[in-house]
Amino acid sequence: MAIDASTLQLGQSSALPASPEEARLDRVPNPHAGTRYLARFTCPEFTSICPVTGQPDFGILVIDYLPGQWLVESKSLKLYLGAFRNHGAFHEDCTVSIGMTLVDLLEPEWFRIGGYWYPRGGIPIDVFWQTGEPPKGLWLPDQGVAPYRGR
Where, per UniProt, does this protein localize (predicted)? Predict the structure, then answer.
């Protein structure tokens, strides 16, 4: 599968989208389709806006997936995640909608996302979503984010 690089955001000047709906996620062919491996993206400075108060929310996102035919292109993922900066949504909605969007785009063999959010109102909210049981034999390291203790 050849890649038409001119259709990707990679290597081109790209402005931060104003919202997740305006963002464009790019996918590229997986050169190791059929090989079982885990791809991980960690976003340690994820931000969104509380839809009620308008105050910023901060979290760490860890995205793990077993690719099928497609990989997410990392620059487009960075821009997509950055587009949440001014997006008003609850922690649960941000985490799960990101996961569902990536699953729809990539059609991975398996997917999980962990949203580790800093406290809002004194209570941290962590959100986890996955597409099913992890495949047997897939090396699945811990997501590496400690339970909340003043992260």
Answer: Cytoplasm
